[in-house]
Amino acid sequence: MSFNSGIELDPDRVSTRSTGRRGAAIGGGSVVAVIAVMLLSQLTGVDLTGLVSQDDGGSAAQTGSSSIDTSMCTTGEAANTYTQCRMVATAESLDAVWGEQLPAQDGRAYAKPDFVLWNGNQVSTACGSASSAVGPFYCPGDSTVYLDMSFFSDMESQLGANDTPLAEEYIVAHEFGHHIQNLQGTMSKTDRSGTGADSDSVRTELQADCYAGTWVHYASTTIDPETGKPFLNKPGDEEIQTALDAASAVGDDHIQQRSGAGVDSDSWTHGSSESRVRWFKTGLEQGDLSACNTFAVAASQL
Ligand SMILES: [Zn+2]
């Protein structure tokens, strides 16, 4: 989804962290990744994409420790050119959409999450330390979305989803969806330690997908308060399809198939490809938070 060239961005909407070359300091072994994942799981707030099961620590070794420069991220053109600027613009659009929709639809005030772009070995959070193998995640303890800048190339190379702008934006919008759930109290009310196709974990993730779709529903009509222009141009069907492809790629069954393991729905934490696409579409088509209540539907409708 392309950003309107006339919008104005604030590079300070994101913060950046660089922590050294990936794999160099801690060995980059999958055991390290698994430990990091377990730590996060125990401390809650984790959003595992499943990449850990395939990450041998070397898949993105070219990712260095260079700092992430967002100083040029001031315009829609920059957002359409540079990934880090697209992250800034996506966050600002999400802030604008949820700043309107959360009060209007749910009677709650919206408070912005922090958004950290990082590269390197690991990142320290209120939910514990995470390695880049974890994938993007939201930590309710510090109300922060963490996104490793190497994730999008991993998404393409390991999960087979084309790394397109709207696919990237879907990932960010999904993590902001967890922040909305946190504001709604859902994060603290649900038991996300369990797994399985109808577990609270999966219901939480599918609702975040639905909220991501809800953002797309409003993103091309919600106005940048700085300029009076919409943040985004209305996405075409082909662009939408790339987001649906990304949602499908991060389905548990697809990830299990890619990793060579058999499909085992008892271990699912995020839901099937089909479910993730369907709930994203529900938000996209309806723009109605109440239609995203994955906790209210029978297991057969997840
Ligand atoms: Zn999630």
UniProtKB/TrEMBL annotation:
It is a single-pass membrane protein. The keyword Endoplasmic reticulum does not apply. Residues 1-23 are annotated as: Disordered. It is found in: Membrane. The chain crosses the membrane at residues 23-43. Keywords: Membrane, Transmembrane, Transmembrane helix. The keyword Cell cycle does not apply. GO terms for cellular component: membrane. It holds the Pfam family Zn_peptidase. This is Neutral zinc metallopeptidase. It comes from Actinomyces gaoshouyii.
